[in-house]
Specification:
By secondary structure, the chain is of the alpha+beta class. The protein has 12 helices and 14 strands. A hairpin with a 2-residue loop joins β13 and β14.
């Protein structure tokens, strides 16, 4: 038999669902997946393979010890260019293949010049990037960092993008650049990759985060305010600046740079890849011996295998976390959805995660998916309340029984006391 309040909640839930259907709740519908889209697993592997960490004087020792400053940021390898180099092998000078790698990031990630930078790749290796004044004096036409924006007293002038060049004899996959985005890209699913501050993940040392989301709006040709014309549904944390925004085919559609409030909503702001495709044709950029990178190269065939094989080092930093296989949550502290998801999933148990354990709060939801989530939550919360009510009623009954037993015990004790008093009175009379 249902309690009256449960009947009422069941009625309310039915009315709510009916009302949602009748009123046509305004929810963006996600773009359908194309046959050429990567699976989520493969898309995550591409992000692992190509996302890098960039920072001032970034070295292995400080990285593994968790002693990384808040000036670090993220980036993405967008080109691998083969060249011939010489190294010393077994006390003999031999020839081996060397590669120049281009990592695209934000200008504000590498804003300070005249210093050394470091790049950490997905296999856990570190590479020094010489941006010192001495280097520039010796090799003025071969800079290792090219900044498209410039810091001035009035703020950033130009586009908040930069290219960081490092050299290695190892083969790293390079991410493909998307063709220029159009304004109708709204609703397209994306994956944001980067290395947020530890406070955002709740894990002691840094772990790389992969955040599914969608494009909320795009102004592909807007070069004001640093070029941030790509609005994302994602919430992201500090140090994810420079992180790549991937499309569903593993192509880089933008570079994340900061969060912002747009129309009362907390959105992630990125720079559409359109700006880099245009800026790399600049005469000054080309004069500094940076190669042109096409946007139609197709997915690097090594990317998925590399990201899968190096999943642990691509996502973690310290030996302890590598051993434990930590991975970053996809709901970061500070996300407006954090508290709600934690409460609904842990306290009430009515919000189920995806098969991979993620919640993906930045994805649009279809009306049908909303109905299922809403109904499950109402049903679970209703059952929880009913159980608590039953426990409360059962508790009251138990208390009443205990009071009745106590009253009976008091009555018996009183009778015993009365009997003792009568016996005492009789003894006094007899004496």
């Amino acid at each position: 038999m249902l309690y009256p309040f449960k009947k009422k909640l069941r009625l309310v839930s039915t009315l709510m669902l009916t009302l949602l259907i009748l009123t046509g709740l305004s929810i963006f519908l996600p773009h359908s997946r194309a046959a050429s889209d990567l699976s989520d697993r493969d898309l995550l592997a591409v992000a692992r393979a190509t996302t890098v960490l960039i920072g001032q004087d970034l070295e292995r020792e400080q990285f593994e010890a968790g002693q990384i400053s808040d000036t670090v940021g993220s980036g993405v390898i967008i080109a691998r260019i083969q060249r011939q180099g010489e190294i010393e092998v077994m006390d003999e000078v031999g020839s081996t293949l060397q590669y120049d790698y281009y990592a695209l990031t934000n200008q504000h990630v590498v804003a300070d010049s005249g210093i050394l930078y470091g790049v950490r790749t997905g296999d856990g290796e570190f590479y020094s990037v010489n941006d010192t004044d001495e280097y520039h004096e010796q090799y003025p036409d071969y800079p290792n960092i090219y900044r498209f924006g410039e810091d001035t007293v009035d703020g950033l002038q130009g586009i908040d993008l930069a290219v960081v060049k490092f050299t290695s004899d190892r083969v790293y996959p390079a991410a493909t650049l998307s063709p220029p985005l159009a304004e109708n890209a709204t609703g397209q699913q994306i994956l944001l990759s980067g290395w947020p501050v530890p406070s955002a993940t709740g894990i002691q040392n840094r772990v790389r985060a992969s955040l599914f989301g969608q494009i909320d709006d795009v102004k592909p040709d807007d070069d004001s305010n640093g070029g941030f014309g790509l609005n994302l549904t994602n919430f992201a944390a500090s140090n994810m600046s420079g992180g790549p925004v991937f499309g569903t085919q593993g192509e880089v559609v933008g570079i994340y740079g900061r969060g912002g409030d747009v129309g009362g909503r907390s959105l992630g702001l990125a720079i559409p890849i359109n700006h880099f495709l245009r800026l790399q044709n600049d005469a000054d950029y080309r004069s500094k011996n940076f190669s042109l990178i096409p946007s139609t190269g197709g997915l690097d065939p090594q990317a998925i295998a590399f990201g899968t094989t190096n999943a642990a080092t691509a996502d973690n930093i310290s030996p302890e976390e590598l051993a434990r296989g930590f991975s970053a949550p996809d709901v970061l502290n500070g996300d407006p959805a954090y508290g709600a998801i934690q409460s609904l999933s842990q306290t009430y148990g009515c919000l189920a995660a995806f098969e991979d354990g993620t919640y993906r709060p930045a994805l649009f939801e279809t009306r049908g998916e909303l109905m299922v989530d809403l109904y499950n939550c109402i049903e679970t919360i209703t059952s929880t309340i009913a159980a608590q009510q039953f426990q409360a009623v059962d508790g009251v009954g138990s208390l009443a029984h205990q009071l009745q037993t106590l009253a009976e015990d008091i009555r018996l004790r009183q009778e015993h006391i009365d009997a003792l008093e009568n016996r005492l009175a009789s003894l006094r009379e007899a004496s």
